[in-house]
Amino acid sequence: MLLKDKTVIITGASRGIGRAIAVECARQSGKVIIGHSGSESSKQHVASLIQAIEQAGSRAVDVGADAADPDTGDKLVKAAVEAFGSVDVFVNNAGICPFHAFLNMPREVYYKTVDTNLNGAYFAVQAAANQMKEQGRGGSIIAVSSISALVGGAMQTHYTPTKAGLLSLMQSCAIALGPYGIRCNAVLPGTIETDINKDDLADQAKRDYMIKRTPLGRLGEPDDLAGPVVFLASDMAKYVTGASLLVDGGMFVNLQ
Predict the structure, then answer these.
(1) Alpha-helix runs per DSSP H in the chain
(2) Is the whole model's pTM more than 0.90, yes or no?
(3) CB neighbours (10 Å) of residue 202?
(4) Which of 129, 158, 163, 188 is most buried, judged by most C-beta within 10 A?
């Protein structure tokens, strides 16, 4: 029970990686705040997620609010304190990646991506960190960055800078928040099968190429991120801060 007596906020938790992290946190006795967009679709996913969390023996509260809104972090923190009395872990997972070419990138697509993936994350991390500082017993902040923070992508010129920004944010926050016992780390997923890349991976040639690039011989699944995040959230990682953990099946080190 690695997260016993801990309250965990997870953004973008209704589906994919965020959902897998939420369920594993519940299995480890963490109480979960489910951040989601608030759309009708996300509400349907949240209902089944809350059921799964309760079946795991824990409790959850959901907050529907746009990750791009700088006030969303305050809403998540308020809900956590009101429901469970604290914020012990904050997982910034929410993100979008509308693939698009660089030369004719619509400004609205660029701004929406940056606001969702980085700007909103900045203020949400700030809100969580202020609550952790006030509590006076440290905490753990984890950003779900991407292998894309380290490599380029022709159709991701708006996306890769945001993931590099999240990685850099965790490195700087590790220094800024270390005096308060708040640890800040990033996980960098490789190619994980989620809704965000479903259309891209529908191209069988692209799919086969990505599998071939991965030494472990398969694409990632959302559950593959859950264990690393729980580790970083737990006291087992009490001396780990400013770290970046690749969870990519070995793709980054494979130059083939």
Answers:
(1) 16-27, 40-55, 72-84, 107-114, 120-135, 160-177, 198-201, 204-213, 223-233
(2) yes
(3) 9
(4) 163
40 vs 111: which has the higher pLDDT = 111
* Candidate CATH numbers 3.40.50.1360, 3.50.50.60, 3.40.50.720, 3.40.640.10; the one for domain 7-253: 3.40.50.720
Burial of 138 (0-12, 13-18, 19+ CB in 10 A): middle
Half-sphere exposure at residue 103, Cβ-oriented, CA atoms within 13 angstroms: 0
Q: What percent of the chain has pLDDT over 70?
A: 99
For residue 15, what is the DSSP state? S
Structure tokens at 208: 């086969």
Q: Which residues are catalytic?
A: 146, 159, 163
What's the pLDDT at 195?
79
**Which residue from 24, 236, 97 is spatially nearest to 10, judged by alpha carbons?**
24
Q: How far apart are CA 111 and CA 86, in angstroms?
A: 33
